[in-house]
Amino acid sequence: MKTFGGPVLFLDRADINTDEIIPAKYLTEITKQDLKPYILEDLKLDGFDPKSEKTRKARVVVSRENFGCGSSREHAPWVFEVNDITAVVAESFARIFRQNMFNCGMAAIELSRSQMDVIFSYANNNDVTMSIDIQAQSLTISAKDRHDTFNFELSPFDKALVLAGGWVDYADTKY
Amino acid sequence: MGKTIAEKIFAAHLLDEPFSGTRVLKLDVVLCHEITTPIAIDDLIERKKDRVFDPAKIKAVIDHVTPAKDSKTATQGKILRDWAHRHGIKDFFDIGANGVCHALFPEKGFIRPGNTVIMGDSHTCTHGAFGAFAAGVGTTDLEVGILKGVCAFREPKTIRFNINGQFPKGVYAKDLILAIIGKIGVNGATDRVIEFCGSTVDSLTMESRMTLCNMAVEAGGTSGICMPDITTVEYLWPFIASEFASKEAALAEYRKWSSDDDAVYDQVIEIDATALVPVSTFGYKPDQVKPAAEFNDTKVDQIYLGSCTNGRLEDLRIAAGILKGKKLAENVRGILSPATPKIYRDAMKEGLIDIFLDAGFCVTNSTCGACLGMSNGVLADGEVCASTTNRNFNGRMGKGGTVHLMSPATAAATAIEGKIADPRKYL
Ligand code: SF4
Q: Nearest residue on chain A to B42, judged by CA atoms?
């Protein structure tokens, strides 16, 4: 199983699509590592800098509704993975992106809008980190003087994929 | 309690239910292209599992960047080509025979009513036009599909659209699907199948039904789906004639794949087709839609006709009908990519290609190319494109470029005026 949690990157916008996470022109790369410098290169978000220290240090991404819509490219989870981001927490996900995350043994965690509002209330704090416990299905966001803990739902299948580290071996032994 | 078509297809293909709510289905068709498949192939090799579940059920094409534009894209093509040859995949379409996947595979008769279909491509939902459950997946799901012929899905819930009445002049399937996405939003159908029903859909050609189903994913839908009928049978007849005694027999068989009258829906939405108008998108999301007539002096630099949404013969006929004897507006570039070589050839025989050339269009080979900003018409920073494709995302056709999605008719009218234009005055 992968490890989850660490510094948080706030992407406060709905409908962030996979073209923004990794533009199509980089889909010609043959290895996942080659994608690394291009993370979130085309993201349309005021004040966001894909090359910033904040982006580089992030281990968890938080966002709003319908995260990962658009193209089916698994390069989107991969570009997170090679940048050591193993979890995305959002109000909702597009189906293919969500499945791609679990298929890679990564976590796509959904919280309600009001819970996400609490998460985003940390956006202006310094050194915000999140710890995530997949087994217990709970996460804690913390800054210097505050913290909040939320439980989340995971389908039993998605949880099994995260614990198993992905879908390929699971399927090949079973079917 | 009745069942929806998606529920029937799921029941007929169910292999396992490892956890409640998760269905592992057997797959009838696994489609592959050179952008998402090579990494799956490399991973299978690394895991020492370089096998395929059934070479006859795998179809592959090089379509996104073809001819190769550089060493990297040449390598992607080579990995797919070598793999297809190594595993005896006969339905592999290489340069000279290749076209945009979701136009080419239906044209070959590969997709049948009741089929389960996956591809490492979000617009796989297009194939639901044949009464199939067809879903886009990522590379890992594709890899398992190639290896084992299975894929896991959540239980299907369905949104049904009852669309009735005749399209007014200048309105096409593209206007309808854009209106639907505008209505329910870019995540209005997440984890849902979208059923397109009603007299309007019954009267549509297979090409138009593919246009509808193609953009189901732009509302978050898993698959679009139309009920198989005589139009479906007529389209497939050259491929199925040996399997059935008559078209009636084929229809009777395929009708099994229809939703029951008492099927249970997540939502049922009525659409009056007679009230629709030609539309275009604005902004960077496909649900930002408004009437073409309401664009005030929105100048464009490029017109793009093509793609899996609207690059078929019917689309070329509609655009050529408007462009005949006319020229591209000054300072506007026109690019046409007929979606398959057959469409290209048929368009040539009908004299359509001459019309586009006379109007000043560049006619390219059949490829995805500019649709995803890879080749053959990428935009420069700040440029605007009127396009018959399906995505207007930021940077989609080139960094800093803007894309307006519209029907071939609206794109043709826009080509003539150099700014987004209502096509009705040219009809
Ligand atoms: S034409 Fe565009 S949308 Fe269709 S498969 Fe090709 S890249 Fe994707």
A: A30
Task: Tell me if the bond preceding B67 is cis, omega within 30° of 0.
Answer: yes
Evaluate whether B230 touches B251 at the Cβ level (below 8 Å): yes
Ligand 1 lined by B217 (C-beta under 6 Å): no
How many Å separate Cα B18 from the centre of its chain? 32
Ligand 1 contact via B368 beta carbon (within 6 Å): yes
* Chain A residues inside the 8 Å CB shell of B137: 72, 96, 99
Predicted confidence pLDDT, tens digits, chain B (427 residues): 899 999 999 999 999 999 999 999 999 999 999 999 999 999 999 999 999 999 999 999 999 999 999 999 999 999 999 999 999 999 999 999 999 999 999 999 999 999 999 999 999 999 999 999 999 999 999 999 999 999 999 988 999 999 999 999 999 999 999 999 999 999 999 999 999 999 999 999 999 999 999 999 999 999 999 999 999 999 999 999 999 999 999 999 999 999 999 999 999 999 999 999 999 999 999 999 999 999 999 999 999 999 999 999 999 999 999 999 999 999 999 999 999 999 999 999 999 999 999 999 999 999 999 999 999 999 999 999 999 999 999 999 999 999 999 999 999 999 999 999 999 999 9
Indicate the pairing of strand A87-90 with strand B22-26.
unpaired
Number of C-beta neighbours around residue A166 at 10 A? 18
Whether B190 and A92 lie within 8 Å, measured CB to CB: yes
- Spatial CA neighbour of B66 closest among B88, B45, B54, B81: B81
Q: How far, in Å, CA of B9 to CA of B109, rounded?
A: 19
d(CA B357, ligand 1 centre) in Å: 24
Q: At what angle do helices B313-323 and B408-417 cross, to 10 degrees?
A: 30
* Amino acid code (one letter) for A148: D
Instruction: Tell me the C-alpha to C-alpha distance, in Å, between residue B180 and each of A69, B126, B233, B401, B424.
Output: 17, 16, 27, 25, 21
Ligand 1 contact, B100 CB (< 6 A): yes
Distance CA A168, CA B61 (A): 23
Supply the residue whose CA is at minimum distance from atom 4 of ligand 1.
B308
Among the partner residues B140, B152, B154, nearest to A166 by beta-carbon distance = B140
Query: Which CATH number is B279-426's, of 3.30.499.10, 3.10.450.50, 3.40.50.300, 3.40.190.10?
Result: 3.30.499.10
- pTM for the model stands at 0.96
Determine the Cα–Cα distance for residues A81 and A107; give it in Å rounded to an integer. 11
CATH number of the domain enclosing A112: 3.20.19.10
CATH superfamily of B1-276: Aconitase, domain 3 (3.30.499.10)
